[in-house]
Amino acid sequence: MAQNITESVESQAAAGAGPEGGACGQPGVASLKDLFTQLCEWSPIGYAVFDIHGQLIEINEAGVQLLGGGLLSDWVGQSLWPLLDSTESERVRRHLQEACEGAGESGKQEPCVVQVFLPGEQGGSRQLRFFSRPHPVGRGRLCLTAFQDISAEVQRRESEHQRQAVLDALSAHIAVLDATGRITAVNEAWRRFARGNGAPQEVESGIGLNYIDACCDVSAEDPDRLAQRSAEGIQAVINGDTRHFTLEYPCHSAQNQRWFLMSVTPLGLESGGVVVVHMDISERVHAEQAMRRRREEVAHASRLSSVTVLAASLVHELSQPLAAAQLYSEAAATLGRQEPLDAAHLLSVVGDMRGQVDRATRIVDQLRRFMRRGEIKKEPSRLEERVHEAVALVAPLARRKRVRLKLDLLNEPVIVHANPLQVEQVLVNLLCNAIEAIELAGSPVRQIRIELERLAEKVQVTVADTGPGLDPEWVPRIFEVWETRKETGMGMGLAISRTIIEAHGGKIWVEPGSDGAVLRFTLPLDHEGDAA
Amino acid sequence: MNESPVVVLLDDDPGVRRSLSLALSLAGYQVEAYATAEDLLTGLDPSQPGCLVLDLRMPGMDGLEVQQALSDRGCSLPVIFMSAFGDIPTTVRALKAGAVDFLEKPFTTDSLIARIEEAVETDRRQRAQEVLRQTIRERAGHLTGRESEVMQLVTAGLSNKDIARELDISPRTVEKYRARVMEKMHADSIADLCQMVAVSSGLGS
To answer: ipTM of this predicted complex?
Structure first.
């Protein structure tokens, strides 16, 4: 029976080989048939004839190999069921049955992909895809089936799926860019974020858009140059100028204050390309802000406590212009009553009075500024201005205690990235300590030197007094909370100064081996501020 | 004595110094203003009547030290201190050293003038007293030793008889010395003479 069918298949194949084919005996036709036969043997495609019960009627050598090898003759009359698990068997059975019954004739029958477990020592499994058509002769009973090994394809697809699943599972927004900056893939978080930001559905994923161009487009409305910096960073990683680029940036929505960290790394492919990851770092930034707020609260309390030390001298400082303004105003009233009226004199007195009122206002403004609850943010700030502000606050106390303040500043502006009030506070604290040390010791030379020095990447501030100097036993604990030898104050001044300086990325220390006390601190220079 | 009083100012703050000078000039005072204690000590003529208006706290020599330096030189011009934030110990020291008054800055021209008037009056009285003391001492200088002794005993309240016994002379001689003392001292009565002795010894007011 099997032999018959084979014959009929062969005749069918010969008939289909071409209208010019004609009789079997011709050499051209015979060789074409041979060629097809050879092709069947060489190709890595399995060809088989199954009956409606799934029994192999015919199979080629490649098919045998795909099913795990063995003698071709041994396979004829076998079924695939031993190679399949029960659900797979059921699917294959249905597939072959449908094919035999003509389902594949219209070309609508889907190929069937199954996993076969290979018999024998080598074991393992492979994915086979079955294409089946009804047998032209044995319709209803037989089908012709071609099958191929698609394990590699499945694996590739699976690993792609897996990669996408991993990407989708990540909460960071991820996009893959090609070497021109075009988006080639994104993850679910990216899409969700785009949806949340009201991106139109067709550009939701952004795939196909050029990321760098998009950055350049918004840079017009980008005061902090964030988009421009992102574009430059991505380009730098694409060009291979750098292996890694990161940028923190705010991206606030109507409801939430959000911050993101953008990170760009090379894809590592021949063709180039990079991975852009946007991570939501709002929680970290909020925590940092909360910490900065707490620090500023403590700093604020400490500023208020500095003000109590300065209060008497500030009252004195304020009473001078007030006294002068009072006297000028009364003098103006007297001049106004005089006959004949000397308007020029009167006006000049009013001008003097105004000058004194301005002077009082400046003192009040300075004090109010120092006493207010400060901002928590840092900004590019001129250090010499901070020194002048601090010195202005402390100068009345210094005058009262007859201590000379000597400023040794730099010729060019020094810009630090700092919270201005907090830096002034550190200076006020150091100056008040120095004045008190000189006063308590009754030092004959009464001078404090404030010096700025520019070092590599940072600036060093020195506050040196002509007091008795610090007890060496005391020095190691001088920056600790509650450690104080003063009768006034809570002993928090230097501890808070240290917290402030360290939060600015600087250091504060006592310079050993000097006659008076020499306290130094450093602050990192602000390079962007320099450039601006 | 007949010179008009001068108000001498000392304040290192130019605004205060200039406004004070102006206000006092407009009120009719002759004003002499100094910015530093050193300038004041060099420039001040202690013989001119008036008063001093000093800022209590200044860099260099402060008001209290100026007061001390002036007193060391025998200058007795009354001192009004101006202060912005006078603490109690400083105030006590200043008052002990003879300050007339304290003014807290800021103050009105009128309140300053009231104090200047008092100080000038004090100065005038002190100067008059000083002149009187000088006159009495001059007159007493013309007394002989015996006349001086008699004056001491008379003003101590002894009777002629007691004095005669004390000095071992006759009551009539005592009477003679006593008349000469009254004449030389330009005294109208014993009470007058007592007053003069008190003034010259610094007890009188």
So the answer is: 0.78
